[in-house]
Amino acid sequence: xxxxxxxxxxxxxxxxxxxxxxxxxxxxxxxxxxxxxxxxxxxxxxxxxxxxxxxxxxxxxxxxxxxxxxxxxxxxxxxxxxxxxxxxxxxxxxxxxxxxxxxxxxxxxxxxxxxxxxxxxxxxxxxxxxxxxxxxxxxxxxxxxxxxxxxxxxxxxxxxxxxxxxxxxxxxxxxxxxxxxxxxxxxxxxxxxxxxxxxxxxxxxxxxxxxxxxxxxxxxxxxxxxxxxxxxxxxxxxxxxxxxxxxxxxxxxxxxxxxxxxxxxxxxxxxxxxxxxxxxxxxxxxxxxxxxxxxxxxxxxxxxxxxxxxxxxxxxxxxxxxxxxxxxxxxxxxxxxxxxxxxxxxxxxxxxx
Length: 353
What we know:
By secondary structure, the protein is of the alpha/beta class.
């Protein structure tokens, strides 16, 4: 298969509900880069990456610049030799993982089109649907409950509360949502904001109310994360501590968490995500497939990966719900908290750009 044209299409999107995390100010805009790939055989595939200021340090224009360099190199590569092609692009992308992610996804879209298979079947076909959480921004208790009720009316059955600024208020927020919506599953993402003792106090206060506690302590302090994991009555997942396969292996070897979170845009795409999942599976740890604020095209790729592996226990694929002007027409469906794939080959999406 020969690539004849690659378009790099940066875009910015507003958010219907600006959100705040423990990292800083409220965010109301995010960036993305779409990749459109044409082949001599007449196939058209799409890739995508996201640039979320709360998660990545890269600027949109820098990611787009690296994508353009990769686009020029891709003209000389066979995307069906996926591992080789992506290895060559990785040399250009360097530390700019979001750029590599866009081409990883586009090449897998082409693979699916060539094979006549949807991504989740191409990668393993373990299931066809998974529940997703929806994230609630850091907010006062009353506002958090109002946001939770709003999301419940939209059909979500799992809520992930952002926290990390005030452990006592985080406990109050979770308790208030649990009291108001006792049939919903709740998660808490502390965004590295706790000390070991604070994390243990929160976990013990919320035992029986939380499904899991995500990244309670600083990402670079695995000793602290391990101590919380060993003593917490609530399962603990590593998120920001997971920067790729080497860090995942370090966490697994130390038994520093009960599970690993992976996001396609930040780790470089499906290839890296599958390596992290393999490490988690070998260590008998669970995998969470997460996201940043991102177009539905990128969500489709994360969903395909999540559906392909029996080790993926948690889905947190909500990054497209509040995006204003997303050009993606998704092939997957959202029904009563579930993301459900179709059998359309590749990513199963169209993009109106």
